[in-house]
Write a structure and sequence with these properties.
This protein has 195 residues and is an alpha+beta fold. It has one domain: Aminopeptidase. It has five helices and eight strands. An eight-stranded mixed β-sheet has the order 1-2-3-4-5-6-8-7, covered by helices on one side. The longest helix is centred in the middle third of the chain and has 16 residues.
């Protein structure tokens, strides 16, 4: 599925629909890798290939969640995923999630670029009003991305998750569509998320 159409692109990263073909050994290895999954709610009980296929299939036709594969546009590699979850169309809210599965891309600012794209998409294409992101302490890549974007730290769930033998706080960030003009996107002049 590496050749599926890229829906959004910025700075060498693209987003395309996550498909059942993405359920493969590489994806399973990401989830089983404690360096990748330590800040995620998945991977503590590694899934089977069938579990992974069911997870991805759950996004097909969903009216409350969307999943994208993160692609390195230079070489076409699928390097992770990002999601818009718990979409509430009445209130205009949703939760964002991300997994950088290919460890070679950690520390390169990928989270910042991907969230720059997905936030614009959620507000400008989907018409949502408010987004929220929970990030565990120690997940410096995602914490840095949220702060660089100027997302608002709204709260903290103390000692929420066990990470590498210690309980970590989950820090919650929020952003409103009205905040768009003040956000520090990677590429301020990129369009509405359609390319």
């Amino acid at each position: 599925m590496e050749n599926a159409p890229i829906l959004m692109e910025d700075a060498g990263y693209g987003l395309r629909k996550l498909t059942i073909e993405d359920a493969n050994a590489k994806y399973l290895n990401w989830i089983a890798d404690s360096d990748v999954n330590c800040f995620l709610t998945v991977g503590k009980f590694p899934p089977s290939l069938e579990d992974l296929k069911r997870y991805i299939s759950g996004f097909e036709g969903s009216t409350s969640a969307i999943a994208f594969a993160i692609i390195d546009t230079e070489n076409g590699l699928h390097i992770g995923n990002t999601t818009i979850n718990a979409i509430n169309w009445i209130s205009g809210t949703a939760d964002l999630g991300m997994m950088i599965g290919d460890k070679r891309y950690l520390g390169r600012g990928c989270a910042y670029i991907v969230w720059s794209m997905i936030i614009r998409y959620a507000f400008e294409v989907l018409g949502l009003r408010r987004l929220y992101i929970g990030i565990l302490e120690g997940n410096e890549e995602c914490l840095d991305a949220a702060r660089r974007l100027s997302l608002v730290e709204e709260g903290r769930w103390r000692q929420h998750s066990l990470v590498k033998g210690a309980y970590q706080d989950e820090i919650w960030f929020g952003v409103l569509r009205d905040d768009l003009p003040g956000l520090q996107f990677h590429n301020r002049h990129q369009g509405n998320g359609n390319g």
